[in-house]
Description:
5 strands, globular
Amino acid sequence: MQSRRAFLALIGAAWAALAAPARAFEFQPYDPAVVKKAIASGKPVIVHVRASWCLQCHEQAAILDSLKSDPAYQEISFFVVDYDKQKDVVAKLDCPRATLIAYKGGKEVKRMSWDTSRAAVVAVLKAAM
C-alpha cells in the first residue's frame, strides 16, 4: 500500500512538472560589474530600464513575461534597472524609463523607448540574438 501511494505521488509530481511552463529567462537586478561582464562575453544581453509606477514599463514587462517560456530567448541574459533607485545607471545609459536596450557581440545594437507593442519588444530581443 505504501509503495502504491509513493508511486502515485511520484506520477502526480511528474505530471505537475510537465504541466508547468518552463522559464526560458528571468530578469536579474542590474549590477554594473555583472552586466559589464555579460556584455563583454559577446552573448546577447537585454537591459530593461523601468519604474514601478510607469504604465509603459508595466506593459513592456507584461510582454516580456509572456515570452519567458519561449526557448528562443533562453540564451539572452536579462537585467532590470530600477529607474528611481539607480539614477547613476540611468544617467550612464542616457535613457528615459520604459527603455529596452539590446547588446550583441559586446556592443549595443538596438534601443527602444516608450513603445508598448509586442512587435517592438520582440524586435529588440531579436536584435540581440
